[in-house]
Design a protein that fits this description.
The protein is α+β, with helices and mostly antiparallel strands and 155 residues long. It has one domain.
Length: 155
């Protein structure tokens, strides 16, 4: 995709993910908190199953990391989202980074489209009040918390 100079089109419609600066990249996050959910991978099929169990750093009301700048040091397996196609394809279908990479654009609930940080919560996309903290779940019980809702998209 070439650089479009039309100032009326938002940056996410004219730039690739790789062309975005740090501020544009960070603004793409819709604040749903789904990437902060613990996932289980089927060793035989490679299929990823989302749970409703969140990282202990996730504020489950705001759906924001409580220590974003130090998250990678504090949580060694924290997901650092970048332009890697395999990583992007493992994100929920609702994720803005995945949507942009797949050419689907941002959804109506995305704050950059709606103008409100609360639209992602109102649309039922976020994990707000649906997730439970990993400190409250024994690792052997993680599979009992597998859910389907993180992969669903409202119409």
């Amino acid at each position: 995709m070439g650089q479009d100079t039309n100032p009326e089109r938002p940056y996410w419609q004219v730039k690739t993910l790789a062309q975005m600066d740090a501020q544009e990249w960070e603004a793409l996050c819709d604040g749903c908190g789904r990437c902060c959910l613990l996932k289980l991978e089927d060793e035989d099929t490679g299929e990823v199953h989302y749970t409703r169990v969140s990282c202990h750093l996730l504020d489950r009301h705001t759906c924001a990391c409580t220590d974003y700048t130090r998250r990678l040091q504090r949580v060694p397996d924290c997901l650092r989202i970048d332009c890697d196609a395999q990583l992007l394809s493992s994100l929920p279908h609702t994720c803005a980074y995945r949507r942009i990479a797949e050419g689907r654009g941002l959804a109506w609930w995305h704050p950059l489209v709606s103008g409100s940080r609360d639209s992602v919560h109102g649309a039922g996309i976020s994990v707000r009040e649906q997730a439970i903290c990993e400190t409250n779940v024994h690792p052997s019980e993680l599979a009992t918390h597998i859910v389907q809702w993180p992969l669903e998209e409202p119409g």
